[in-house]
Amino acid sequence: MIEFELTDKQNMLRETLASLGKDVIRPQTLAWDRQKAVDEQFLRTFYTMQSSLRGPDNPMEDFYEGKKKRDPSKPVQTNRTAVVGCEMLAWADASIMLSLPGPGLGGPPVRASGTSEQKERFFGIFKNMDDELRWGAYGLTEPGAGSDVASIRTSCKKDGDAYILNGRKCYITMGGRASWVVIFATVDPALGRAGQRAFVVEKGTPGFFVGKLEDKMGLRANETAELVLEDCRVPVANLLGGEEKYETKEGFMTAMKTFDATRPMVAAMAVGIGRAAYEYARDFVKENYMLSRPIPRYAAIVERLARMNRNLEAARILVWKSVAMADHHQPNAKEASMGKALAGQAAINACVEAIEICGAHGSLKTDHALLEKWFRDIKVYDIFEGTGQIQRIVISKRLLTDLKSF
Ligand SMILES: Cc1cc2nc3c(=O)[nH]c(=O)nc-3n(C[C@H](O)[C@H](O)[C@H](O)COP(=O)(O)OP(=O)(O)OC[C@H]3O[C@@H](n4cnc5c(N)ncnc54)[C@H](O)[C@@H]3O)c2cc1C
Predict the structure, then answer these.
(1) N or C end of the chain, less CB within 10 A?
(2) Which domains are delineated in the chain?
C-alpha cells in the first residue's frame, strides 16, 4: 500500500523546493531568525509561486474547496504530497513552513468538522490573497492545559444566537496575524471531553485580543502568540459543525482528528531539519577526512553518520505509511503518533550528533553556519502537536485496545 516512488508532480515539487531552499531561502534564514519574522515580500513571492504550482495533487486544494469534489472511496495523494513539501521546506527553513499564508493548523479542524457553509466561508478568504496575505490558526493549549487536552478551562456559555467565550490560549502559531482561529472551549469543565466545543473566532470580534508574542529559543522567525477572550460574543453560526454535532464528544474528537492530519506533517518537517543537519555533517566529514584513512576515529564517525541516516529514513517511511493510510481513508492515529515520536527523536539526535561530528566548528554562530540554528529549531518538534511522551501513550493505548496489531 505504501508507494515508495514519488509521482512526477511530487518529484517536481521536491526539486523546486530544493533549489529554492538552497539558493534563496538558506542565505536569508539567519537574518529572518534575528529579525523574528520571515520577510513578507518573500512570503508573497512564495504564495504566487505556490499558486502556479497548484495541481490536482495539491493538498491545499482540499482546504480551499467548500464541498468535496472527489469520490471519497478513491485513494488520493494529497497527504503524501503535503509531507513531501513539508519535509523539503523544513530542510530549507522550518520557520517558513509554519509561516506560510493559508489556514495553517486551523485548516484540518474546519475540514474535518465544519459544515459546507463554514468551509466555504472560512476557506473562501484564502482563495485569492493577491491583495493581502491571510492566515488561520488553531487554539487549543492553555496555561495549565497542554498535553492534558481534556482539562481546558476556556468557557463558552450560550446567550441567544451566540456563545460568550472567556479564557486564555497560549503558544498559538500565527495567532497574532490570523484572520480566524479555531478556539476550543468548554460548556462545563466537569464534563471533561464531552463538554468541549470548537468555534471559529474571527479577528476583530469584540473581546478577542492578541496578548504577548513569545520570544523562543528556536523557530524564532515564526510567530507564537497568546490569545485572550474576554466576554467574546461568537455567533452560533461559528460553532464548528453546528450544535447537533455536540451531542457526542465532537469537540474533543475535532481536536484529535486534527492531530491525525497534522502530526505526519510536523513529523515530516522534523525529518527535513534532521536531514539538513545530517547532510551538513556528512559533507563536513567528506571534506575533512580522507576516506582511506584507517583510523578508529574515522570508523566511529561514519558509524554515527550511518545511524543518523538510518533513523531518519525509518522515520520518513513511518510518516509515509501514516499518510498513505489517510490517503486511503483509513484511521491512522497510531501510525501518525509513531511517525511523530520517531521523527522527533531521530531528528533531535541528528542535530546533536551533527554538531558533535563537526567539533567546535559545529557550535559556531556565523552567517553561514546553520547547524546551531537547526539545533535550536528542532527541540520543539518533540513538544508541539503532542510531546514524545504523549505519542508513546497514544501508541500504547492503541496497542492494548487492538491486540491484533503487531
Ligand atoms: C513553538 C510552539 C508552537 C505551538 N503552537 C501551538 C498551536 O498553534 N496551537 C496550540 O493549541 N498549541 C500550540 N503549542 C502548544 C503545544 O501543543 C504544547 O506546548 C504541548 O502540547 C505540550 O503542552 P505543555 O507545554 O503544557 O506541556 P505539559 O503538558 O505541561 O508537559 C510537560 C511535560 O510533562 C510530560 N507529560 C505531560 N502529561 C504526561 C503524561 N500523562 N504522562 C507522561 N508525561 C506527561 C510531557 O511529555 C512534557 O514532557 C505550541 C507550542 C510551541 C512550543
Answers:
(1) C
(2) 8-124 (1.10.540.10), 136-248 (2.40.110.10), 251-401 (1.20.140.10)
